[in-house]
Amino acid sequence: MLVDDFVMRQVQKIAEMLAAIAGSPHARPPEGVLDQIRQAYRDLLGMDVDLADLLGADALVAGLRSERERDALVDLTLAHAEVCARRDDAAGARARLTRALALMREDDPRVAGALARLDDIAASR
């Protein structure tokens, strides 16, 4: 039960972060959002995003306790990609979107949106 409560808090944080980013279309992300993202990675994975980036998607998924955590990690990675894109870091956005796609299950409904966003970023270079 304690693990589920923790996961739900992380999912809620990520949802709030996504709402804040989505609430300002095409605007720069709010100040401090990258620090929030880094903290969310630490809370969810127990490691910094820089260390997580060294691991493959399969290794990250294997370290998660549930599908809810996997979904939360995908949401967090998508949010991170959007923040990168809005900070004019196309390479970072592409890397995060590619990672999110690798983390998703084949039937994940977010695949189409992530692929479309990847195309948008490639077209805007």
Q: In angstroms, what separates the terminal alpha carbons?
A: 46 Å
Radius of gyration: 14 Å
Order of helices and strands: HHHHHHH
Overall structural class, as computed from helix and strand content, comes to mainly alpha
Give the helix level as a range of percent. Answer: over 70%
**What is the makeup of the main sheet?**
none
Rounded mean pLDDT score: 86
Low-confidence stretches: none
- How many individual helices? 7
Count of discrete structural domains = 1
Salient structural properties:
125 residues, mainly alpha, 7 helices
Q: What this model shows, in words?
A:
The termini are far apart. The protein is globular and about 35 Å long. The longest helix is centred in the first third of the chain and has 21 residues, at 2-22. Helix 1 packs antiparallel against helix 2 and helix 1 packs parallel to helix 5 (67-86). By secondary structure, it is an all-alpha fold. The chain has one domain (2-123). The protein has helices spanning 2-22, 33-45, 49-52, 57-62, 67-86, 90-103, 111-123.
Show the helix and strand layout.
Layout: H1 2-22, H2 33-45, H3 49-52, H4 57-62, H5 67-86, H6 90-103, H7 111-123
Describe what is shown at a glance:
This protein is mainly α and 125 residues long. It has seven helices and no strands.
